[in-house]
Amino acid sequence: MNYLAIAVVAYFLVAIEVILDKFLLTSKRVSHPSVYAFYIGMMSLFALALIPFGFHLIGLKQAFFTIIPGIIFAYGVLCLFFAINKSEASRVLPVVGAIIPIVTFLLSIFFLSERLYLVQLAGVAALIVGGLLISFDLPFKRDKKFFKGFYYSIGAGILLAIAFTWFKHFFERDNFVNVFIWTRLGLFLGSISLFLNPAWRRRILGSFGGFNNPQKEHYRTGSLFVVNKALGGIGSYMTNYAIAIGSVTIVNALVSTEYVFILIIGLVMSFKFPKIFQEKESALDLMQKIVAILIISLGVVLISLKHRL
Questions:
Q1: Among the listed residues 127, 15, 128, 34, the one whose alpha carbon sits nearest the alpha carbon of residue 77
Q2: In 10 A of CB 204, how many CB atoms?
Q3: Looking at the DSSP assignment, which residues form a beta bridge with residue 144?
Q4: DSSP per residue over 3-25, as a string?
Q5: Torsion-angle region of 291 (φ positive above 0: left; ψ -120 to 50: alpha; else: beta)
Q6: For 166-222, what is each residue's pLDDT tens digit?
Q7: How far is residue 32 CA from its own chain's centroid?
Q8: Residue 98 sits in which domain range?
Q9: pTM for the whole thing?
Q10: How many domains does the chain have?
């Protein structure tokens, strides 16, 4: 299986994770995005199970610079949850997916000496255009240019792009498992740093009450959270592996397939949970999203052409 196929499967798993994230956050089963981000950081410690498969100690300076992108990743995830909590997942992810390839492409040019063929650049451009088209309401309104959570989406895209590019830098200099473990330690430390914000600290500490006084609903929420994060963990691992063996710009551009999956799954789920998913079903809205999906599909084809020549 080449890295393109690995990336698409990974994004499908992550799409399911995002839909469940939206369900848990918007249904108030999880009280706040900071609480959600904190527990994800805690679960990142499961990466320690990979220690026998390639982990080794590194110098203090190298450890510091390997952990930093994990912390950045943690805050990118936090911004993403704030955005998902405020708006439709099928709006948030396209914006994030548009920002990531732009930022990673610029960073890759300056720091990774990466170059793409012209046809691949056209593919990245198509993915960006499709991502933006799928994100906004048509027709535009004067008093509402951007959807709720738009700026959080921008912040998430920038932070995640920086983290992914930094990951790629270390993947080229060490084995995949070792880099994965060290960066996940950074994610863990990033989640611990959420305690520095008094409001977030109170919410996180307040969530511990569910463990002291467990109820059936807490068990269900906890089980759903664990299964959801297991899917996301597998997807994240596969994404990082695809980045390690392929082009960071192309793998991140393929995130567009993720929000195609999100659009389809979210639309189906909106029939059962309309207040949570709030996917619009007007003819104009569906047409807008269908056109965007076609543009995204064209982008995926274009960036794949190099590998078929």
A1: 34
A2: 22
A3: 141
A4: HHHHHHHHHHHHHHHHHHHHHHH
A5: alpha
A6: 888 888 888 988 998 999 999 999 999 999 999 999 999 887 765 555 556 666 777
A7: 18
A8: 3-308
A9: 0.79
A10: 1
